[in-house]
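look at this stuff:

>
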Amino acid sequence: MWTLALRGGARVAVVAAEWYDDAFGVVTRGRVRLELRDGEMGPVLGRGAGFWLRGTGVRALRNPGRRTARVRIVTPSSWRQG
């Protein structure tokens, strides 16, 4: 499990090959907007919202706000440690 910090206005690309098959993100602070594979903007997710990273068409994560947003990334290896 690790945390991704997105400064205000930041965009982070999601490259499917770099994620575990079952990687799951949970917004723990701020808001995160999903950018979809077709270039369309997806929903804005707030604190407590979760989403799958691979196989869902998400190509980037964006912080639409001015304050730093945080996303906790949970992977299969961290599930086994729990």
In short: Helices lie at 76-81. Strands lie at 2-6, 11-13, 24-29, 32-36, 41-45, 50-52, 58-62, 69-74. The chain has a mean pLDDT of 86. The radius of gyration is 12 Å.
